Amino acid sequence: MGGPDRAGNLQAIFRPHQDLDAGYPPCWTHGDGRHGTACTEGASETLDRGGVVIDRVLGHLATHLNGYYRRHFQVAEDVAVVSNLQEVGGAPVVPSANKVVLFLSSIERDTLAHRATGSNPAITHGIARSMPPVYLNLLVMCAANFSGSHYPEALKFLSSAIVFFQANAVFDHQNTPDLDARLERLALNMENLSSQEMHSLWSIHGGRYLPSALFRVRMITLDAGGMRGRDPAVSQPDTGVQAR
After folding, report:
1. Do 241 and 214 contact (CB within 8 A), yes or no?
2. Does any domain span residue 85?
3. Based on the domain organization, do 16 and 57 belong to the same domain?
4. Does residue 66 sit within a domain?
5. pTM score
6. 53-73 and 151-167 helices cross at what angle (nearest 10)?
7. Are 211 and 154 in contact (CB under 8 A)?
8. Domain shared by 76 and 93, yes or no
9. Residues 93/113, Cβ–Cβ less than 8 Å
């Protein structure tokens, strides 16, 4: 049998991995799919710094909405919760009953913010390359999950939530010092839904309509911060002839 193709083997062992977004630079990937050390370290650091931000966003909104409810309705327990409406098997989530439920409906990449700030990664001295911040829009549903004789309560708490988020459309580190340090600010806008859009949305979330309002939360900044790749230092070869 003939010997292996050395050039083919080298190409299989070290092949550049190009991100789906053309704005990100390649990093070296082993032939078996494993990323090189620089890539995996950068990815690990990215997860450490930004992996829990989305849940902190909804938690931040629920915390301050509950503070508003306590001040205006003198309730002792939390009315707003971050939760699904249904379990995976379709059963209702019991802790979300008779609550104002905040849940994530969709995630969008804010392309306008990317174009304004530039999407090319930072390059330091042509060696270390880092990923740029990620700007996201979160579509957050605020649903009053009350039933039966508690329906008037659903309308009361939902209307109060709309008033609160209308009056507090921006959360930053000045007006809410407890905002996660990885977030720059949160800007809320209430979205208008057509009847067809509302039907499609609630079909996804169990098919049972609840009094609700959909908010677009803008400018969620996940700063990757970690190094994405490292170019090997390249120097000119010494072509001079040494004296004997």
Report:
1. no
2. yes
3. no
4. yes
5. 0.68
6. 110
7. yes
8. yes
9. no
Q: What are the tens digits of pLDDT across the range 46-96? A: 444 444 589 999 999 999 999 999 999 999 999 999 999 988 888 889 999
Using an 8 Å Cβ cutoff, are 81 and 141 in contact? no
- What residues have CB less than 8 Å from 134, skipping those under 6 apart? 50, 109, 221, 222, 224
Pairing outcome for strands 14-17 and 80-82:
unpaired
The answer as to whether 199 is a domain residue is: yes
Domains in the chain, number: 2
Q: For residues 73 and 194, state if they share a domain.
A: yes
**Residue recorded with tokens 């550049």:** 16
